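A quick word before the example. In earlier lectures we treated sequence and structure as two separate objects. From today on, think of them as two lines of the same record. Here is Peptidoglycan binding domain-containing protein written that way.
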Amino acid sequence: MDGIIGRNTVKAINSCPPEVLFNAIKSARIHYYNTIAQRGQNHKFLKGWLKRIGKIEFES
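And the structure line, produced from the sequence above:
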């Protein structure tokens, strides 16, 4: 992983069903929020972050 969105990354994204990609990104975001909530006083924001991400739904 080099952090660059190149030809192979675009090919992988385009080969993935949209709903599967959406759910993977959403799950990664939830994991990220849970991770940063463990640092400092960030835990007090977790409920709001998860509520906000929970309102995002896939539409085909």
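Notice the following. The CA atoms of residues 5 and 11 lie 10 Å apart. We will return to this example when we discuss secondary structure assignment.
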